[in-house]
Each structure stands twice: as structure tokens, then as C-alpha cells.
Amino acid sequence: MEKIIVWWKENNRGITLVKALLLASLPVLCCLVYCAAQGYAIGQVYLPVSEWNDELFYYKQVEGMIHYGYPQGYFGFNESHALKLSFAAWSPVLVFPWIIWGLIFGWNLMSPVYCNIFLMALCCFLFVCLVRPTWKQLGILTLLFCLYTPFVRYMLSVMPEVICFSMLIIFYSLSVNYLRRERAYKLVLLFLLSVVMTLMRPYLVLFLLLPAFLWIRKSRWKGVAGSFAVLAVAAGMYAWLKHYLGAEYFAPLFFTDWVSAFFEQGLFGGIRFTLGKLYYMGLEFLHHIRLGFSAGWASGAFFVGYLVCMLVLTAQSLRDGLRIRRWRKAILTRQKEGQNEGETIAEKEEKEVKARFIIEVHLALSFLAMLFALLLMYKLTEGSKHLLTFMAVAIFIIALMETKFYKKAAVLGVTFAYFFFYVAGDPYDYQVPFVREERLASLEEWEDIFSERLVLNREDVPNYDNVVIWVFNDTVEGTKVNTQWQLLYALPEGFGISCCMPDYVLEHFDTLQSRYLCVVPGGAVEENCVRAGYEKLAERENAVLYQRY
Description:
Layout: H1 2-9, H2 13-37, H3 54-68, E1 76-77, H4 96-105, H5 111-131, H6 135-147, H7 150-155, H8 161-180, H9 184-200, H10 209-219, H11 221-245, H12 257-295, H13 298-337, H14 340-377, H15 380-383, H16 387-398, H17 407-422, H18 427-430, H19 437-453, E2 467-471, E3 473-476, E4 479-482, E5 496-500, H20 502-507, E6 516-519, H21 524-532, E7 535-540, E8 543-547
Parallel strand pairs: 1-5, 2-5, 2-6
Antiparallel strand pairs: 3-4, 6-8, 7-8
């Protein structure tokens, strides 16, 4: 008992627990306050009102995995499907926390929301336990967390960003803990976390380089060989997942034309192509930033926040690097003068700053590498949301920086306040979806019809009998109208969804494989359905569901 008491009192563990519990309550409090400010409770978040159509795919795929191990119908695009099983274009590893949550607590429209809030609370709790921030650092972190509204927006969604946020925050918390007290099991956990993150999204391989550096720093050639082996395994596993479990998307998920230019045009031709692409994409990048300032574009806001975080990390890295260099000179001077006690104190202080320096440098370099990846490999609007994960972890690292006048936190806080509060007017990017009576009635009506008419075919699954084609949009009287795809949340568990463009459906109308079609009323695709004599199962808002056979 005395040993337990001594352990508890050591390093003020009681105070650390209080800090951890306080920070863990912050995500819950932010969600409650945000919802209350809109006149709602968290339980009134209603995903079928959201305009983010990726959420439908994530939600229904997880639902199929929880109930059947994998969806019984294909998820894909223009009727594409994975070589094995029935997942869409994104790695199923990306949603594994939701699967675990659903298996334990069940799966419904609020399940991913509650899981997201829990994950953020958990990572905040572990951050304090592993890093042990001061009260001042905790206060800075709290302020920045509240101003960074993507935390709340993505917690109250079915987008996997919060899964990436929480895993990366835990990763860096463990890295700080490792650098303070190096233990082999911590390094193993860092490699494990970074491999899982790489399988979730390939650009997160940047964070596998940190444990590789730490291992090489400790064991030299053994670390080089081991790190290369881990990197090769992670790359091989991702390639396998992408090849066998990923359906072909409408367009490449990321572009590699700048790489192929080196093979097609030679070294200098490849360099010219790459520099030219960086120039023109850079101009577009600046255009998004200008519209972020003037019109509140979310992509521009993300780009500015990203650049500010990168500059703060770079500036602090240079500052800490110079401090370490000065201290080393001071230690050498004391050694010559025989002042061993002063040397011990300086070395202890230097170790703490050096640990923070390694983290800051790695994160700053990761920011820089991801910036080039964004310009060379992604569409800027879609790619901008991938920067949110980097900014989320930067908030936690910047809060740990030594500060006297709070300049760094103030600059970042003002940036977030301007873009996420003052000019954040686009409801598509910022408005949390809350329940609407009309949509609720539509879903209930479709659920009743589907429970009677749609029967899951369990033979030779996955198959196209269990697939609904979601025709993305159609033209009605000269106006392009989107299908009310949110009603497909009412599909029974296990059904797959293939998002198809109207041109594809019209061109291949007589050879379509999927059993059901969800179309825009009055569009060209519906006219073909009527001429073909397909049975109409349900119609509500801007969506009609037909059964082909």
C-alpha cells in the first residue's frame, strides 16, 4: 500500500489525473456548447441532413461490416467494384474504430458521432498522461482547441478525420514521452501506430519516419535495416489493400503525372514539368487563399491556417536549435573549468528542449512535404481537408512551446478566430446537420417501404442484386438537379451503393448490372426507367427508387 501511495505522489500524479480529466471533458463541452448555440442538443444531430455525400458511403459500409463482416452488395463508382469483397475506393482500415464501437454498442445514426467524441476525449486524456503539460500549456491548448472549429464539425459527422486526428495526437504524445524516457516498448508502439496510419491514408507514411529516425539514432545500422523493413511491409500492405479491396474511383485519388514525366521526358524534362506544375498549382493555391480572406472559402481558410502552423513550427525549431547549440558550447566551457554540477543541470535542461526540438522539426518537415504533395498530387478543394489532421496535431505541439508573451498562440488563435468564426459563412463546410421534420418523415417512409420490398440476396455475396445505383444528378427542364441521395440512409443493412454519373447510366442502360436505380424525378434516366417498365418502389423529395428486375 505504501508503494502505491509513493507511486501516486511521485510527479504529482493526482494533479495529472485532474488535468487529464479536465482536458478529456473539453471535446464533450465544445460539442454541447456548439449545439446549444444553434438551439439543439447533441442527440438532434441528424446525418441524413448533411450535404457531405462521402458520409453515406462510410456509414453504410461500416453498417454492412458490423452486421455481415462485409457489405453484401458492391460499393463503387459507375458500377466498379473491388477485386475482393465489396469496399469502395478508401481503405477499410480507415474506419476500424467505428467498427469496434458498433460491435460493442450497436450501430445507428448517432453511433459514429458518439464514437468520434469518445476518441477525441480519449486522445486528450492520453495526451496529458503522456506529456504532462503545465497549467499554462493546458490553458493555451484549451483556447486553441475551442477556436479550431473543425474539431467540433468533424466530431459531429461520419467523416474519418477525427480518427486521424486522435491517432496522430496520441502518436506525438507517445513520441514526447519516449524522448523523455526511452523504452523499447514505446518505440514498438510508435511503429505500430504509424503503420496503421499509413494503411489508413498513404500520406501518413510521413509519420513513420519519426520512429525510424529514433531507432536509427539509437541503434545505427540495425535501426536502418529494421526501419527499412517496416517501411517495406507497410508499403506492401497498403498496395495489397488498394489493389484488392479498393474500387476504381471516377478519377485517380491522387495524381502521379509529375513522376511519369521523368520517365517520358527524361531528367530535365521531368524537372521542368514538376516546377511548372508547382508554379501553376501555387497560383491556384494563392487564389484559394484570397477567396478565403474575402469570401470565406473553407479551402482558403485551411491553407492559411496550415501555413501559419508551419511557420510557427519552423520558427520554434530554429530557436530551439540555436539554444541547444549555445548550451553545448556552455557545457564544453564548464568541462574545461571543471564545473561538473553546472554541466549536469545544463544537460538535463538541454534534454527536455532537445526532445521538443526533434518533435518540432519532424512535424515542420511533414508540413512542408504534405504541402508539396498537395500541390503535385491532389485537387486543391478536395485535398484541403487532408491538411486538417496536420493542423489538429500542430495545435497540441504548439501549446507545449515555451512562451512568455503568448505570441505564437496569439497569432494562431487570431487566424482561427478570423477564418472559423468571422468569415466562416458557407453552411456546406461549417454547418452541423440537425434534424428536420421533412427529412425525418421521408426516411421513415422509405424505411417502411424498404423493409417490405427490398430483400437481401445472401447467395454468392457480394453481388449486384444487393446494389442500388445512385445516379448523382440529372437534367430536368434544362436545369441540373442532384438526386436526394440522403434518403439512401434508409437502405437495409448490407446493401451496397454504386454512385454513377448520368452519362454512364444512359450509355450503359441496357447492360447495367445493379438491381435498383435511385434517380432524379423527371430526368432522362427516369424516362428510360419508365420506358423499360421498371417498377417504382418509392418517391420522395428529389429521389425515386426503381427496381430493374
